[in-house]
Amino acid sequence: MAPLSVRLAPLEDPEALGRHWQVLAGDAAPTAFTSWPWIASWLHELAVRPWLVEARRGRETVGLALVCCRRHWRHGLLPVRTAHLHATGDPRRDAITIEHNDLLVRPDEGEAVRRAMLATLLARPRAEFLVDELWLPGFAGRSAPDPGLPAIRRLYARRPSARIELARLRGPYVEGLRSGVRRRLRRAIRLYRDRGPLVLERAEAGSQALRWFDQLAARHVAKWRARGRESAFAWPHFLRFHRRLLATAPHVARLYRLRAGAEVVGILYFLCWRDHAFFYAGGFAFEHDNRLKPGLVTHAFAVERLREEGFAVYDLGAGAEPYKLELGTPGPELVTWVLARPSLLLRGEHALRQLRARWRNRTSAAGGAASAG
Questions:
Q1: What is the model's pLDDT at position 1?
Q2: How far apart are CA 286 and CA 218, in angstroms?
Q3: For residue range 207-231, what is the model confidence (pLDDT) as tens digits?
């Protein structure tokens, strides 16, 4: 077997990277978030200047990843230099929200290549790449990535997810739901059919897809504004990113719209890759009658449509919203991991963080015992 080497350098030629990425992604990318259409839109619309990590077995590329570096002051006292995998480290720019993130690694190479790439990022192989922490957002599963060298591993954030296993459905989807959900859905469907036939349509690539996307965005902004919160769909860089994705990769970025007669009930935006359809966002009608469930009804129709189109998984994404477990079952936990070099300052900060967590757990336990008494 040829020796494994890992190269770290500023990305100079995105077009050449695109050719290599697409070849490797044909075997290695499990979801749309590490496909080239997503990465290319990220590079283009967010104007990022990342570092490229490339693993080679002899002359063949077996692993690729991109990281963006950022320097900031933590607690106003501790200078920290961070690298972020397929993200910028700026919360507003990262509102596009990558999930199912990972290094792009050829499956038959597995953990050995992943470990070598992580180790290279933490080992500071170049004087101009001085990183204290490596941030890995949106990883699926609870196992901490192993860099193969001493590092502080920290679970920064975790979110549940839900999915519908389309390949395992037997009979009509609605029939398999819990009785309360099934009853509410059937009632809402009857009420909508009083307005006209319920028809689910897929947007055609080009101007129609962009027009539907704008309609979805307007509904999303209105929904969150009514709750006193801001929607990322109001931010120009967010809209540019998705419009580019829709324009350049209509096979990946898809929109479906449910109508009751002439009225639009809901619009769903999916990222599709292989047999995996990832629900990214939705925009729904505002109804005064709470018996009408535009989101549930639109999803129920989309489940049957995507099932017919041959998808095996309908991924409802990360989040604890109740509707996700009404429609599906628990999926993998999505976790943000932080791998830190074990410097004196970072070891001290980690120890203080652990002490604070223990104190909070004891306080919580004591409060629970007092309430029980």
A1: 77
A2: 12
A3: 999 999 999 999 999 999 988 999 9
Cα separations in angstroms, 87 against 46, 76, 137, 284, 339: 10, 23, 8, 29, 15
Where residue 371 falls among pLDDT bands split at 50, 70, 90?
very low
Domains identified in the chain and CATH numbers = 4-160+333-342 (3.40.630), 163-318 (3.40.630.30)
pLDDT at 254: 98
Cα dihedral 202→207→209→213 (10° resolution): -140
Alpha-carbon distance of 71 to 167, in angstroms, equals: 45
Within 8 A by CB and 6+ apart from 316, the residues are 161, 162, 163, 164, 279, 324, 327, 328, 331
Q: Are 283 and 218 in contact (CB under 8 A)?
A: yes
Phi–psi pair at 371, nearest 5 degrees: -65, -40
pLDDT band at residue 372, thresholds of 50, 70 and 90? very low
pLDDT digits (tens, 9 = 90+) for 351-367: 767 777 677 777 665 55
